[in-house]
Amino acid sequence: MKLTMKVEFPQFNPTFIKANRGATVTLTLVNTNKVADFQPNHTFTSDILGVSVELQQGTTKTITFTLPSDGAPVRFYCIPHGRAGQQGAFYFS
Ligand SMILES: [Cu+2]
C-alpha cells in the first residue's frame, strides 16, 4: 500500500491506519511545519519496524517497510513529542 502522512506537531495525520498483515508499505512523510512554528522538527520512529527517520521542517521523505504478519499493532511515534501524544499505529482486522 502507498500512503502519504502529514507529520506536524502535535500529531501524525492519519494517526491510525488499517492495513493488511505482512503488507509492504511505501510511506511518504511530509513535515508541513515551518521554521517559525512551535516544535517544527519531528521523527517517524517505530521500534517494532526498526525504523527511525528524521524530518526537518518543510521536508519530505519516502520510506518502504514490511509490516509483520502476527497481527499485533505496529506503533510509531515522534522521539521528541511522543510523550506529548504524537504517536499512532498500523492495525489489522
Ligand atoms: Cu514531533
Main traits of this protein?
Immunoglobulin-like, 93 residues, binds copper (II) ion, 3-stranded mixed sheet, single chain
Structural notes for this entry:
This protein is mostly beta strands and about 90 residues long. The chain has a single domain, classed as Immunoglobulin-like (Sandwich), CATH 2.60.40.420. The chain contains no helices and nine strands. The strands form three sheets. It has a four-stranded mixed sheet with strand order 2-1-4-7, with no helix packed on it. Strands 3-9-8 form a three-stranded mixed sheet, with no helix packed on it. The protein has a two-stranded antiparallel ribbon with strand order 5-6. A hairpin with a 2-residue loop joins strand 1 and strand 2. The chain is globular and about 40 Å long. The relative contact order is 0.31. The site of copper (II) ion has 6 residues, from loops.
What is the tally of beta strands? 9
Which CATH top level class fits?
Mainly Beta
What is the overall number of helices? 0
- CATH fold description: Immunoglobulin-like
Rounded mean pLDDT is 96
What is the straight-line distance between the termini?
15 Å
Query: What class would the helix/strand composition place it in?
Result: mainly beta
Bound molecules: copper (II) ion
Tell me the strand percentage band.
Answer: over 45%
- Estimate nothing, just give the exact number of structural domains: 1
CATH superfamily: Cupredoxins -  blue copper proteins
Sheet with the most strands?
4 strands, mixed
